[in-house]
Amino acid sequence: MDGLVKGLINVALDHIQGGDDRDERDSQPRDERSRSSWAQVVSGEPEDHDGSSSNTDHNTTAWNRRQSYGRNDERKSGELSHAEEDKNNDGWETVLKKPPRQQTKVHKEQWGNYKRPLGEQEYSSEVDCGAGIEPSEEELADLSKALNRLWDLDLNRLVPGKDYEIDCGEGKKVYQKEDMAEGSLFSWLSDEIFTRPTYSRFCSLLDNYNPHEGHKEVVTPQEKQEQAAFIEEISRTAPIKYLYKYLSAKGIVSESYPDFKRMMTSLWFDLYGRGGTSSCSSAFEHVFVGEIKRGEQEVSGFHNWIQFYLEETKGRVDYQGYIFPRRRGQIPDSETQLLTIQFEWNGVLKSVSSTLIGVSPEFEIAIYTLCFYVGGEDNHVELGPYPVNVKCYRLGNKIGSAFPVADS
């Protein structure tokens, strides 16, 4: 009888949550709307385009326990001291759904140097690709060919089974709330990855942001140096050099490489308003780091696999399974590098999200920048073996959001 009652309650809750989806879509800020919702693009289910459902009671409780999470907070992982846990739990023991993972070792020896003036930075040698970074006439006329070329030029992309391993767990529909993953998405990742210059500089940027969407960001002079240094580092790689050649050939940027790098720094790191608050967001924060929508308890953005891995090892991300692909025969496995997944971040559910696993930071910066300047909101392209719709939403003259969707 107890099982029957619980089942009826779950059905009723599912009906109520499903009815809230339309209201959530209607309350979206204009830069987050789409002619067809993100969840509908992925699975045909009626959900918010950026994929979050409210699940309010559970998420609010979990989020309230993580209010200490913020920039420069030594406990920003949301973990409370044992004494605080005992006090907050009123004597109840917290039972983890999954065993805690050993935190990864990220090499931080150079991170202090990354905040030095640009003239005191040490960078990698320039990649010499010769004519290999010159876009062909076919690529200039076809965005799909250009993005596929960028896939080939991503010399820094990781190899499944050699550099990392993932466990996709079980699949689920967007609206399903059950956790279908017994463990974490990432089984392991080689420590060597974080010694690579573009990866290391990318990681050093991730803790510069407050996750609250309505929280005004304060960018220090050192963080500005860090941003410019990251752009300088990736500008020495093949994908960014190709991007520059492409945009220059199209007349979108000047032939000055320093001007191009300043444009890239502005495009990705300049602050803008989101959710009614000015200077609280940026393209980099939204796409790669992720945000929590104010008052709605929804995860917005957060499409980068490195951020996912690091947050998962710290216990802030709970992977809950992959979303069933619309086309049969495309069930993901440990070799798959384009995933559509569901997870919780700091106790807040992201019903559907997508990410390219193992690609380099410079590759993602390049494809989203190219789609922003040359493409549209929907960009149906080929990335290696994957048919992809690279979604790119504009917020004025800035990138509002950008992410890949597995094309059916």
Automatic annotation (TrEMBL):
Cofactor(s) needed for function: Mn(2+)
Biased composition regions of type Polar residues, renumbered to the chain: 52-70
Disordered, as annotated region: 15-113
Record-linked Pfam families: XendoU
EndoU domain sequence ranges: 139-408
Alphabetized InterPro entries for the sequence: ENDOU, EndoU-like, EndoU_C
Bias-annotated ranges (Basic and acidic residues): 17-35, 71-90
Keyword entries, A-Z: Endonuclease, Hydrolase, Lyase, Manganese, Metal-binding, Nuclease, RNA-binding
UniProt xrefs under SUPFAM superfamilies: EndoU-like (SSF142877)
Keyword Glycoprotein assigned: no
Summary of subunit composition and partner proteins: Monomer.
Family: Belongs to the ENDOU family.
Protein name, entry field: EndoU domain-containing protein
